[in-house]
Write a structure and sequence with these properties.
- This protein is of the alpha+beta class.
- It contains nine helices and five strands.
- A five-stranded mixed β-sheet has the order 1-5-4-2-3, sandwiched between helices.
- β4 and β5 form a beta hairpin.
- α3 runs antiparallel to α4 and α8 crosses α9.
- The chain is globular.
- The protein starts with a helix and ends with a helix.
């Protein structure tokens, strides 16, 4: 048994090493990322806007979350980071409302990892309003205050805005990351470029592309500001 474990570990390391050598060192548009036909307006000021499009029930979003969170921390004041919950069909809406309600209450980042853990580790569904309310109450959040935000008129505007952003950025899968209003990349886009690789390698490759795109965006924004 121990010998078999050693073999499996060696194979895993070999795959990681092979994948690491395939990570994009010189990212190319149309290969490692997409350049939007029409740049989108951002309100990040002198910083670069980074948007993660995600879905709580997506296993890849769950796996990407720790890696992305660490990357965001390292970026510091270089970026303005936002999240947009997607809806590829109507059944996604309760989770969209969950995110935006928590965001309005200042609780979204605090509970982000907890929600992923509840769904993907504890195997508890959060697909309906009732399931979500049960979860919220167990987390010590006032039920009525949460429902007031969850059912508010302003929530409709946020859902429409999310749908518009999803369309404008051409989001066809998650997780997907938009940078500077000009570019999008994702583990699946990078995977198509570098070939078959373990998920951690795809994530690291995606971060390389994101670093490149943040630098590109900052350079373009700086040049545009200098012309004014």
């Amino acid at each position: 048994m121990r010998f078999l474990s050693q073999i499996l570990m060696a194979v895993s390391f070999s795959l990681l090493a092979a994948g690491a050598g395939a990570t994009p060192d010189n990212p190319q548009s149309g290969k490692d990322y997409r350049t939007l036909a029409k740049a989108q307006h951002t309100d990040a000021g002198a910083r670069v806007e980074v948007i993660e499009f995600f879905w709580y029930s997506c296993p890849h979003c769950n796996s990407f979350e720790p890696t992305l969170s660490e990357w965001v921390k390292k970026q510091g004041d270089n970026i303005v980071f936002k999240r947009v919950p997607v809806a590829f069909r109507d059944s996604f809406e309760p989770q969209q409302r969950l995110y935006y309600a928590l965001e309005a209450m200042g609780k979204s980042e605090e509970l982000q990892k907890k929600i992923f853990r509840t769904i993907h580790v504890e195997r508890r569904q959060l697909d309906t309003k009732d399931q979500i309310v049960d979860f919220i109450v167990k987390e010590g959040i006032d039920k009525q205050k949460f429902l007031d935000v969850y059912n508010s008129f302003s929530m409709g505007s946020k859902l429409k805005r999310a749908a518009q952003l999803q369309q404008d950025y051409g989001v066809d899968g998650v997780p997907m990351v938009a940078i500077g209003g000009r570019y999008v990349t994702s583990p699946s886009i990078v995977g198509a470029s570098i070939g078959r690789a373990p998920e951690p390698v795809l994530f690291q490759g995606t971060l390389k592309v994101m670093d490149f795109l943040v630098a590109q965006s900052a350079k373009k924004d700086g040049a545009a500001a200098a012309k004014k």
